[in-house]
Amino acid sequence: MKRQYLEFEKPIFELQQQLDKLKRQAEKEKLDLSEEMEAITEKIRKTRTEIYKNLTPWQRIQIARHYSERPFMLDYVENAFEDYLELHGDRLVGDDNAMPAGFARIGSQRCVVIGHQKGRNTKENLKRNFGSAHPEGYRKAMRVMRLAAKFDLPVFTLVDTPGAFPGIGAEERNIAEAIANNLREMAMLRTPIITVVIGEGGSGGALGIGVADRVLMLENAYYSVISPEGCAAILWKDGKRAAEAAEALKITAGDLKGLGVIDRVISEPEGGAHVDPLSMALRLKEVLTEEYQKLRALSMEELLEKRYEKFRRFGEFTSTNGSPATASEDPPEPVASVGG
Predict the structure, then answer these.
(1) Over 60: is that where the pLDDT of 66 sits?
(2) Is residue 43 in some structural domain?
(3) pLDDT for res 250
(4) 173 falls in which pLDDT band (50, 70, 90)?
(5) Do residues 165 and 133 make contact, with C-beta atoms less than 8 angstroms apart?
(6) In whole angstroms, what is the distance from residue 11 CA to residue 17 CA?
(7) CATH no. for residue 305?
(8) Contact by Cβ (8 Å): 97, 60
């Protein structure tokens, strides 16, 4: 499959074209152009390193949305988990293909894995609703999580959604209640929960399966209460200022780790997870196993208490001297926040 390059990767694309042209010429004319090809290959490597060492928040968001190539939830299930058995339906309305869920195994540990699934073409996206789950998707997720707690299995959730489906049908079937119920139930669920934002982490659609003991993010993912385009449209009445909004929102993995919203950033192969999906999946498996081992050491009471404290800390701010702000102090200027 031919690589599709993003706009900021144009210098790499142009060099790759030169390399491909040399290869064709060498093959057609039976020439030894290995030295020239090696020089261009090295230049591609250096150019890629330079570009990916200095990515802007907007460029990371573009990578997170690289629908044609970036690994999706079921790609990780295939390569990081084993013996996946998908469960269907919420026992109330029906099934939701945007939210696959089921039993699996990671290493020797039986578990439950749940996540958002997008499509790579129009047909798949219509089936998966572009990764935007309906109320029945969130209710199915909770049904499967309760099974996990019943059988003492850890829950792994993989977040990749622009947001929950905002259509009339979803409103009629109480999407807000479904997400709110998940927030409450996940906060009290008596089994370890680990969430990974693997691409887009949009608003309540992400948070609906994101209340976890450990919240992790891939290096080129984002997690936000609103899309940069939506933020720009509200603040400046101009969606074209999305790159500026992305910078102000502080929604990339590094920023959120610094703010304490997430617990760990998982590095990706240079060029993004789509450059080497198998390597990324094996890295994810390694990290999930490591994080689960840490949670296993806690008693259930400790686990629930730490989970509660983790989310209660969100929204705190500090004064300029670094100490917690008090009610008598003037609050800082409001800034965009994450959540759902």
Answers:
(1) yes
(2) yes
(3) 92
(4) very high
(5) yes
(6) 10
(7) 3.90.226.10
(8) no
How far, CA to CA in Å, does 130 sit from each of 40, 109, 121, 177, 210?
38, 31, 10, 21, 19
Give this prediction's pTM: 0.86
Shared-domain flag, residues 272 and 230: yes
Cα→Cα distances 269→48, 121, 250, 320, Å? 11, 25, 22, 37
How confident is residue 340, by pLDDT bands cut at 50, 70 and 90? Answer: very low
82 shares its domain with 47: no
- With vertex at residue 256, the alpha carbon angle to CA 222 and CA 142, rounded to the nearest 5 degrees, is 65
- What pLDDT, on the 0 to 100 scale, is given for residue 186? 97
pLDDT of residue 9: 82
The domain containing residue 175 runs over which residues?
62-312
**pLDDT level of residue 42 (50, 70, 90 thresholds):** confident
Cα–Cα distance, 98 to 296 (Å, whole number):
30
In a domain, 207, yes or no: yes
Residues 49 and 189 in one domain: no
> Are 41 and 149 in a shared domain?
no
Residue 335: what pLDDT? Answer: 45
Please compute the mean of the pLDDT values over residues 64-82 and round it to a whole number.
Answer: 92
Are 298 and 175 part of one and the same domain?
yes
Mean pLDDT of all residues in the chain? 89
